[in-house]
Amino acid sequence: TCDTGDQQTTAAVHLKEPAATIVERLKDVSTYEGEDAVFECRLSRETAQDAQWFLGDVPLQSNEMNEIRVQGTRHSLILRKVTLEDCGSISFKVGQHSSAA
């Protein structure tokens, strides 16, 4: 607000959260059946945007077989005790950006 005594004007500041981008992409993982497979990627910033992991087209959630971690800008997926059925494309999506391995 600017007030000169007999006149006043007011303005507001509006902020938009900039979109996070993927700065460290997923890498292919080779492992043995029964071991864990770990996938990691890093974003340009911490974000409130929804990030999602996929095995093929199936969205993944943390459970006894999959562990999803977020530590600052680093996002990790651990597939526990993989089997041959777990072979395939893993992808990570945030906003309009994605990475696959």
Automatic annotation (TrEMBL):
The lineage of its organism: Eukaryota, Metazoa, Chordata, Craniata, Vertebrata. Gene3D superfamilies: Immunoglobulins (2.60.40.10). SUPFAM superfamilies: Immunoglobulin (SSF48726). It comes from the Eukaryota. It is found in: Cytoplasm. One of its GO terms (cellular component) is cytoplasm. The keyword Phosphoprotein applies. Pfam families: I-set. InterPro entries: Ig-like_dom (IPR007110), Ig-like_dom_sf (IPR036179), Ig-like_fold (IPR013783), Ig_I-set (IPR013098), Obscurin/Obscurin-like_Reg (IPR052385). Keywords: Cytoplasm, Disulfide bond, Phosphoprotein. This is OBSCN protein. Residues 18-101 form the Ig-like domain. The gene is Obscn_0. The keyword Phosphoprotein applies. PROSITE patterns: IG_LIKE.
